[in-house]
Amino acid sequence: MTETDHYGFATRAIHVGQDPDPTTGSVIVPIHATSTFAQDGVGGLRGGFEYSRTGNPTRAALEECLAALEGGRHGRAFASGMAATDTALRTMLRPGDHVIIPNDAYGGTFRLLDKVMSHWGIEYTPVALSDADAVRAAVRPNTRLVWVETPTNPLLRIADIALLAELSHSVDARLLVDNTFASPYLQSPLDLGADVVLHSTTKYIGGHSDVIGGALVTSDDELNTAFGFLQNAAGAVPGPFDAWLTLRGIKTLEVRMEKHSDNTEKITEALLRHPKVTHVFYPGLPDHPGHEVATKQMRRYGGMVSFTVEGGVDAALQVCSRTRLFTLAESLGGVESLIEHPGRMTHLSTAGSPLQVPGDLVRLSVGIESADDLIADLLAALD
């Protein structure tokens, strides 16, 4: 337990790792735009910094804050969510090992495993992680990792983190939770037994669609050391300005997530009433298969919603092209609303695989604009 653990979420987001600068009194963490640091004699490091790939004060502030938000002892920041994913996989797996992944995993994660890691002898099995029996059946003697997304992208399926942590540990495997969709504000996987939490900080943590980044958080000292070694050895680190932008975004994470959730609940109600919408995927709906588990492990249900439309692929593409406030673009989690066709965009790499997504599916990242304006925009696109 650290001295900041008793603080509320918003207080930690604004203050942890972000004390006023001791030299100037700057309230905001400075952007330490330097590649190297002067030493007081050979090995005489000031504050432990020698070279910015290895460590930078702005990045260190971000890493401390990220760890505090997830309730972990250690945070590591990366140049992108995929850089964090690559580091996690290469740290925790060796040739011949097996990993269980969601059967609707993020396309980038699937691509890395299927097109890169498989050439190095890593095996994977896609499973409906909401089905504990299916997960047990997928376990092999060489299973070393269970990789969880909850909610998943783009079908918003829910996995029981505590249950999967117990199952993973019973077979000497680790549990990693990609917490990108929920954000640290809505869900705390480490408290539920996860060994590692992963984020694309590009999304809700950054929150303004202006910076790319990733993170790994853990309380396991050995894992943290291994993450840090590969972070430095491979060098996929964020620059100081990227770290600074991410810290800036973190400060408003709580208020943004509340507004994202408010808007999404209203939009979901409007979608349910529309005759051309055939199904709505949102864990906040009582008839969602994972609603009970989501209610147990999440503070609210988040800002992502997907739906299918009458007319198949062509109709879905038309909806995506007709909105004016919802911008047609990949990514998610920013203050502005986005719309996309997963089958042709973020999940194109899954085409023809067991992870292929429905062609009539539309995914929304609901922003923090006025809800009535967003609803009107969607209804016009559907009509």
Overview of this protein structure:
The chain is α/β, with parallel strands linked by helices and 383 residues long. Helix content is 37%, strand content 15%. The protein has 13 helices and twelve strands. Strands 1-7-6-5-4-2-3 form a seven-stranded mixed β-sheet, with helices on both faces. Strands 8-9-12-11-10 form a five-stranded mixed β-sheet. Helix 1 runs antiparallel to helix 2 (57-70), helix 3 packs across helix 8 and helix 10 (253-273) runs parallel beside helix 13 (371-382). The N and C termini lie far apart (54 Å). The model has no long low-confidence stretch (mean pLDDT 96).
**Percent range for helical residues?**
25-40%
Q: Flag low-confidence runs.
A: none
With helices defined by DSSP (H or I, 4 residues minimum), what is the helix count?
13
The structural class is alpha/beta
**Helix/strand order:** HHEHEHEHEHEHEEHHHEHEHEEEH
- Widest sheet, order of strands: 1-7-6-5-4-2-3
Tally of DSSP β-strands: 12
